[in-house]
User: Fold this.
Amino acid sequence: MNKIGEGYYYTVYEMSPTRVMKKETSYESKLAKLQSWYGNDSRLLEEKISHLEESSKKSIALSKRLAETPELKAVLGNPMFVNDSEYEQDKATLLESFLDQENFLPLLHEYIQANFLLWAFGYGDVVHNFTFNAGVSVVTNKVILLDFNELTQDKESIAKDIETQKWTNQASMLGLKRKYPDLYSQVEALFGSGFNIDNVDKYWASRC
Ligand SMILES: Nc1ncnc2c1ncn2[C@@H]1O[C@H](COP(=O)(O)OP(=O)(O)O)[C@@H](O)[C@H]1O
Ligand SMILES: [Mg+2]
Assistant:
């Protein structure tokens, strides 16, 4: 299988023109990534790895449950788990591929709506790295959320992230600010009008 992507937790392979398989990365690979982010302090690295292990396991278990909700299946790319952490998913073209295209803002609008749908079932994304953790499904042509490692059921923490506009300090927005400053302002405005406390209160758990 062709490798088409890699994050901290998963290496992603193309199984067919429409499906990917997401395999967990090795302990050594996780450690090497953490080293490149945080340096060589072995106690700090151990702390980080065990903290991330715990939060990822929790988040993936949540997504496994979420994927059983018929209304959410499509927006999560029809995942099919092969064990506790590894899964197949619809293949997507990452949102970063659309940054210089006219339809980027409508796609971002769709991304925000996808997040509202998660909120409606009492789940929220904690990171908002929309450029590489979301994409347009090659199966449905709709925006799907790819990364299951960053989910929470804690409304308060979602509200806090919104208050501090946490997304402005994440890789996607930082990259946009550097490379596409005009688009950055438009994305900031769109996120501000979508990701706000009124909408959290409006949507959160409204379909539980
Ligand atoms: N369904 C998919 N279709 C195409 N590429 C994908 C898909 N899922 C993940 N990827 C690629 O693999 C990378 C890592 O996958 P992701 O689910 O974000 O795992 P991690 O939790 O390790 O960040 C993504 O940033 C993206 O580049
Ligand atoms: Mg990711």
Observations:
- The chain has nine helices and ten strands.
- Residues 42-66 form the longest helix (25 residues).
